[in-house]
Amino acid sequence: MNTTLLLTLLSGALSNTALAQSDYEDLDEPDEQRRERRDRTPNIDREVREITKGFYSKANVGGAFYLLDFAGFVNAGTSLGLGVGKDFVNQEKTSMAWEVMYFQGIHNGMYYAEQATLGCGVAAPCVQGDLRTYTFAGALEYSKYPHRRWGIGVRVGGGIMLSPLLIDPEAYQSEVVEKSWNGYAPTFHTQPHPIVLGGPTVEYYTKLGHFSVGVDTDVFYAIGFDLGASVTGTMKYTF
To answer: Architecture of 55-238 per CATH?
Structure first.
């Protein structure tokens, strides 16, 4: 009796394993082979998904540069970012997500005294020299999937940019503004700047189901600061 029961349980387990394997669908398999596999598979609504969507965290690394008044005075620099978001629309060919992010930009700039010789507020913007910027923003992204693992999208968003002084405020006021810039005091480093941004995104979902990599390209405008752009590579982990 015990032997018969054991054989019955073993047979059922093997059948379930074979069924689960037959239900598996490789997203990289050619369409014709996938159709043939589906024709041979019992009509059971069970699918192993290789691409994971939902709540995620993302890291960005790349570069940024300015396009208008700062061009020629502030060099292209590095852009580092961290973000979290969630795919709230998840369909076969389209998706939508929200994201909140933090970016830090690091740039070398022209020495403030050299800017003064060109004319503050006329030929030169007269920033402090080297810059650090800190941006806090939110964005919405819409993506389409021309291939199972490739997503092409666009995102738009907005937030706040800060570019604090990197020198002592008293020294900046006395040595830079009053002596070098003849009292010219721009507000680049003394107040926050509302920012709008947007641009295309490309994403590739790896065979490690929770990981994807991609490229974010953003054009941004910080009011009272300048127009710029950034291109960053991304790595995303979806929980």
So the answer is: Beta Barrel (2.40)
Residue in the block written with tokens 């004319």: 119
> Can you read off the two tokens belonging to residue 112?
């403030």
- Please state, in angstroms and as integers, the Cα–Cα distance from residue 158 to each residue in 26, 84, 86, 123, 135, following that order: 39, 15, 17, 29, 10
Provide the phi-psi class of 183: left if phi over 0, else alpha when psi is between -120 and 50, else beta.
left
The reported pTM is: 0.77
Residue 47 has pLDDT above 50, yes or no: no
Which element (helix H / strand E) includes 20? helix 2-23
**Domain edges within the chain:** 2-40, 55-238
Given a contact cutoff of 8 angstroms between Cβ atoms, the answer to whether 140 and 98 are in contact is: yes
Which of 91, 90, 87, 102 has its CA nearest to residue 140?
87
